[in-house]
């Protein structure tokens, strides 16, 4: 890692999923993540924070969702919400759903590597602009409806659909963050 506040991340995989295709279960591949002091999180939800992550060998940019592990282990037979989210998100492939690239964990956190949406969320856009035009709303709704149709065909209900979970790519394509199952 280079630059002030940069640090290397652990790259242990869970359940055989790897962060980068073609990389062994334990990766020593360098990535760059600025410390929160040097580079504040892209977004912060009630249960996680999201940071911009750059693969130093390919310059590929991702979003890194960091979820604290539960203070206590789930009861016997119960699966943690992070495990459910990973299992669900790893099966989703649609142009209006934020892509899942893999995950890894350490003792305190679960890290999910997701598609980077450079224009942030519709909540950010609305806050900055105060209003959207009717054609813009129609355009975004087409993408949201396409993503929801895909989820509903797979018998998945989003449960947390809001502007802060609708992200925009560079060319303003809308992406639904799958959120908590």
Automatic annotation (TrEMBL):
State the GO CC annotations: centrosome; cytoplasm; kinetochore; nucleus; spindle pole
**Top EC category:** transferase
Keyword check for Ubl conjugation, yes or no: no
Domain of life (superkingdom) = Eukaryota
Domain Protein kinase as annotated: residue spans: 36-181
Q: A single GO molecular function, which one?
A: protein serine/threonine kinase activity
Which PROSITE patterns does this entry report, sorted A to Z?
PROTEIN_KINASE_DOM, PROTEIN_KINASE_ST
The answer to whether keyword 4Fe-4S applies is no
Cited InterPro entries? Kinase-like_dom_sf (IPR011009), Prot_kinase_dom (IPR000719), Ser/Thr_kinase_AS (IPR008271)
> What keywords are assigned to this protein?
ATP-binding, Kinase, Nucleotide-binding, Serine/threonine-protein kinase, Transferase
Query: What PANTHER family is this protein classified in?
Result: INACTIVE SERINE_THREONINE-PROTEIN KINASE PLK5 (PTHR24345:SF43), SERINE/THREONINE-PROTEIN KINASE PLK (PTHR24345)
Q: What is this protein called?
A: non-specific serine/threonine protein kinase
Source organism per UniProt: Spermophilus dauricus (Daurian ground squirrel)
